[in-house]
Amino acid sequence: MDWFKRKKAKAASQEERLAFSEAQDFSFVQLDKSIHDVKFETKPTTFFKDAFRRFCKSKSSVTAAIILGVLILLAVIVPIADGNDISRSNNITESHYLPPKWFPSGTGWMDGTEWVSNVTLDPATMRPVQSDGAIYRDEAIVSDIEVREDYLSQKSENILQYGEGGSVTFFPTREGYDVDYMSDPFTYLPTNEVVISFSFDKEATETLGGNPLWTPVLYVQGEDGQWAIGHELQEAGRSYEDCSFALGEVLGDAVLEATEFRFGVHVAGEEGKRTSLYLKSAVLSNNGVANDSVSFTDATALLGGRSSNWTLLSQGAQTGIYRSKVLLGSFRYDKYKAAFGEDTATFTSTEIDTFVKRGWMTYTWGDLSSFSLTEEGEKYCPIRTADRESTSSWGDVSSRSLTGTRSRYRYMYYQGYISECTDQIYYLFGTNAQGQDFFKIVFSGLLTSLELGFLCAIINITVGVVWGSISGYFGGWVDLLMERVAEILGGVPFIVMMTLIVLLLGSNFWTFLLGLCLTGWMGMAATTRSQFYRFKGREYVLASRTLGASDARLIFRHILPNGIGIIITSGVLMIPSVIFSEATISYLLPGVLAFQGSQSFGVTLSTAQQSITTYPYMIISASIVMAVIMICFNLFGNGLRDAFNPSMKGAQD
Amino acid sequence: MAKYVAKRILLICLTAFIVLSLTYILIQYLPLVEPMGSATDRIAFWNDQVSLGYYTVVDPIRAQAGLEHYDISFNDGTNWYFYAARPVWDRYIAWIVNIFTKWNWGVSTNLSVGRSAIDIIMQRLPVSIELNIISIVVSIPLGLGLGILAALKKNTWVDDIISTVVMIFISVPSFVVISFLLIIFSYNLGWLPGVWPSNSQAQADPGMAALAYIIPVGALSFGSIAGFARYTRAELCEVMSSEFLLLARTKGLTKTQSVIRHAMRNSMVPIVPMIIGQFISILSGSMILEQLYGIPGIGSLFVKALEGSDYSVVMVDMAIYTLIGLGATLLVDLSYGIVDPRIRMGAKK
User: Fold this and answer.
1) Chain B residue closest in CA terms to A496
2) Strand, coil or helix: what is A620?
3) What per-residue confidence (pLDDT) applies to A66?
């Protein structure tokens, strides 16, 4: 109830206030004053100040402008400030394709390390196998090696050398061919008790091998020196159980024509099939003792040439390995440590002399113990220890060289690939196929693209405004003619136009600019033309004309300034579209259309694209920079448009 | 109306003719490229060129003596053959005559030597058109839907999110989108094929062939979805604030009714022409995609033909792009009249 009363009282007091009372509510403002112009109390504002004030209200546009400023600044500064060499290929292969590094090693993310998985391990040392394709330096393996066993069937060097077990498979290259696989020769004396035993991978033979028809055989050498089947130890069959044959029993009293034999298996060719046998082991024992020189129990070792040697009798047959046990290791690998660490290298006498001349080291040729580094050399000298001196002669020219420990980061610094003599190098975007700093490449490319964009925008706007003004102001047949010319030029697809120009005039910055400007002004011309159609009939133009203003004066002093906002906005929005076109076209035809010299952004993207599967970090970082700059330009441009033309505010965000 | 259309078509034919003539003449000034293939193929090719009127045979004896100029010379093992190009203007006339009388647009000199350029294009055109139509079909409902949603929920978080995403997709170049799609869905997750399957692969595995459409269609659609959404939102916002919509509401229509029957129909006026325009921009945008994804369409053909300097193919490909582009502008202009009765051209004059 209380509440109701209060409300009622409030309403009553309001009514009271609303009630009309002349004395209270009205007073004459200028009753006895003389009326004259009063100075505005508000501050005068210009067109641009007003636009700037409105622009600042849009937070996203201001943010975009700031990011844009930073990126443009980076594009200008990075190519100058970053001293890493991107004009030459770095000849230290370990420094190629380094991943991005932002944080010190060991932080786990973006620290220049990579998780390397499934590298073949050497069972003896439990370290990764150093094969041609990939070399893993011990000092750069920064985590424990996770070991797992795997059974692999590829006949690769690593597996054959470091795997074990499994079974050998052999098969003809064409359907229906016989295959014979046999041991090295052995001497058989009937007085000895010789037993041959085979064991198979039964399941694989039946499923993958296609049930081959096989025979255990002894091979003898004919008079022509060729080996051929001498004795079959058993009827041909399709049983793949482990089996053994005592030669004494099988051969019985047969007369042996020789003492040298080979033993092995014969697989009969069958029409329309390529059968193969999966042989786990074949052992020949002599009086109960295995003859290791002809038998094998480890198929991988056999194929890898680490035990006895077996040969294929048939031409055009192949062997393969099946389910060899391999140890695979996975570990975290610090690619920066590998690239900037130490190794053993040979320095030429010229290099050594240069080091001495620079005061980095002292050395007398012929005396290894005279090697010492100076204080400055401690910091810069690429050679750290001297191990061996050698002389090589080519004809009558002999050259001396010194082999020793090489510090690779110092060596790269000496070569000029890197700008600072430290192994704590951070490549923010990694390095590319030539070991060049990708960060610098991206921003150098961006600078080129920005230059192209700015120049193009200036030319296009100038041409477009002049063209559009003339066409719009004069109208009539001039307009019609100019419109047709624009239509024909615009009718040629952009890429065609670009290609023709580049093919005819060569591929460089200026032809690109020409190609981009040849059709780029049309949008601006159309906008200006419509502006002129809108304003040329206005009274102020008529007034000016009656006062005797010339056409040029009317165009440039009276009508054109109306469109200054639109011109600025299109200028800003034209830059990203030029960058876009350039990138697209260089990306599309890097061979034909990319201009070399100063590498453009499109070329950078296009080369990064080629290693998208193997080294995606390059295309990712370049794409992000590209995307950010495009987004910022567009946001900034939209902000400008809204600022210059408040009626369009938010229309096309 | 018919008179206007006829006039426009005539004008387009004229423009196309001038554009193609210009292109042909410019291409003729490019360094000459000899066809690949064996000597007999080449003799056949050059003799064909002679019979079509582009080249003349030069007497070997006079040519070797240096008495007569020649542009092409080769040896089939026993004899020397010399040919000289006729002046560019003569070649141009011969080209026009050949097109109008024999429909002969030249033969490929590099990609598949000796085949008619028209054949090659026609074989590859369906894939490009198919991809473009699919992505247009996908992007129209999505783009319009998102645009309408954003306009109806203007200045709420829904609008903010849609506008931001649209902004990003409009700004980011399509090849960047394609790269990311490939990295994520093909190489890392392995869900989608990383390259367009060949005909035999597609027949063997129709499922994979269907999956192979996802990345190209996605890459092509993102841009146009964003474009449609942005444009629809802008148009609808403008219409929504107009007086006739207020009138519709005041006379008792519900919001849904007023939006669907009045606002949407009016905002469609500039959007329908835009859809047609988008079709063209997709067609040219698919060039990069076809190249990256290994799709055997006319876009990748154009790139290959340029790289291999196969100018007959380039010429026909250009002709197609030019005609599609000009045809689209005509359709855009006509569709204005169809969608919006106020600007029906030639209706009264």
Assistant:
1) B318
2) helix
3) 94
